[in-house]
Amino acid sequence: xxxxxxxxxxxxxxxxxxxxxxxxxxxxxxxxxxxxxxxxxxxxxxxxxxxxxxxxxxxxxxxxxxxxxxxxxxxxxxxxxxxxxxxxxxxxxxxxxxxxxxxxxxxxxxxxxxxxxxxxxxxxxxxxxxxxxxxxxxxxxxxxxxxxxxxxxxxxxxxxxxxxxxxxxxxxxxxxxxxxxxxxxxxxxxxxxxxxxxxxxxxxxxxxxxxxxxxxxxxxxxxxxxxxxxxxxxxxxxxxxxxxxxxxxxxxxxxxxxxxxxxxxxxxxxxxxxxxxxxxxxxxxxxxxxxxxxxxxxxxxxxxxxxxxxxxxxxxxxxxxxxxxxxxxxxxxxxxxxxxxxxxxxxxxxxxxxxxxxxxxxxxxxxxxxxxxxxxxxxxxxxxxxxxxxxxxxxxxxxxxxxxxxxxxxxxxxxxxxxxxxxxxxxxxxxxxxxxxxxxxxxxxxxxxxxxxxxxxxxxxxxxxxxxxxxxxxxxxxxxx
Length: 481
Ligand code: 5AD
Ligand code: SF4
Known about the structure:
alpha/beta; Rossmann fold; pyruvate-formate lyase- activating enzyme; CATH 2.40.50.140; 3 domains; 5-stranded mixed barrel; 15 helices; 21 strands; globular; binds 5'-deoxyadenosine; binds iron/sulfur cluster
């Protein structure tokens, strides 16, 4: 499962891409997880070759694309509101076409055209290479749909156009799809079966980013630890691979080591990890390479083993705790963050208490916490009644968020007096006199600009904090520059 992009960035649009001679204008917005943002860069790349440059001005667009998320009902509602907005603009611009991409396109398919009549084109996550044909269809006045899921597509051969980029951080996708079948989750239906991307194409992309001055990459997948390259194809078919393919297969820890060695000055992150697939190898690899950040996003969803079983998670409470203990032993100072779903069907008060007690045990650096949202077609929706009343879900979520906030403050406070290495990403949102970046544990650090610039690795002495941010004074460039 993917980490959802920072709320503030949802819907971000992007303009930087301009190829000479291109006369058509593409407006593209992305919602949901990092994978969606990464996919939008692939889409922009495909359309650059079709005569489109991106614009951040909706009114002047020839083509409006929205890359959508289905993870919770709220995510879909947000997209519906945006579609209404595009259609209002479209009334004044007769040549404008609107297309829906991503998970909601895959989930609702033709329904978008039949029932809603607010879009011209519906394209699922594995069909982006068909966009040039689909666009021709809509230009000749027909609606167009392609929601075929693929066994092979990884877009490994497409060099993404970097959108909304600061030229410092980039997303690199390494797997697509998901085989986990968590009962609450729509992703296996919207993104299909799990497949891994050729390590050579991953390395080529990382090397290219380094040569363009990028300083940090995040390797992306719904379940990165399950990465396995054996010559292509679905993960589930690995058992039928040849002996040679099996002997030369690349695992996630192999891939991490390859990337870390290829670009020792680049910071490497990865997301998302699933407890059942995270191996000790990966932990040792993270510990071994200084440029792989000591930070793991490790969703646990619930602290109760019965609920985990109902969710079809492949781990128990005890196994999760064991893994946390291992991480803390093998990677001292590892930042760990979580995802939690509260109010899953049948969750009792005692079971909710177990989620709180697991939080107390781990003391996560931060987390992403959600009320259960029933998704049509999932196993949970088919088998279990969404029986936890909304007020109870709300109250449990507040209790969870309050405990997490306390732990975030505990974690940030521990950095006071310490010197941390920060990669400057942008100007602080609150002050044009300060830079904002992150330390390895992914905590935001804000400090006076002095003569430093974005992309610098700076040593910062932390002297103050909130539960979400560290503040400090820069004391010099780190050796990593
Ligand atoms: N309801 C609420 N939260 C969900 N997530 C996934 N599916 C649902 C759902 N149906 C959460 C999980 C996941 C994160 C990306 O979104 O916590 O890890
Ligand atoms: Fe990402 Fe799709 Fe899942 Fe949303 S539903 S988090 S876009 S994979």
